[in-house]
Amino acid sequence: MLRTVAALTMATMVMTSIPALAQQGKDECLLASQNCKDQVDSIQQKIAKLNKEIAKGKKVYTPTEIKVLQGKLREVNNQLDDLLKPGH
């Protein structure tokens, strides 16, 4: 009986923690523009955040998600380059 209770308790703990583990460490605002809540970053802050998230690699993100973050980083870097061009 004690084994059954322990097994059920362990199974419950595992099942309730799976969604949290799947999202652990992901920045949904950067990745999918979700859960941003009035978040306004400078271009430099966004570049730093994207670099930080990309550095987490496959431990946190899927290869597809990493490509999305890298694409967003390229876009932000291009925006910064445009702003820094002479005569702008």
UniProtKB/TrEMBL annotation:
Keywords: Coiled coil, Signal. Residues 33-60 form a coiled coil. Residues 1-22 form the signal peptide. This is Uncharacterized protein. The lineage of its organism: Bacteria, Pseudomonadati, Thermodesulfobacteriota, Desulfuromonadia, Geobacterales.
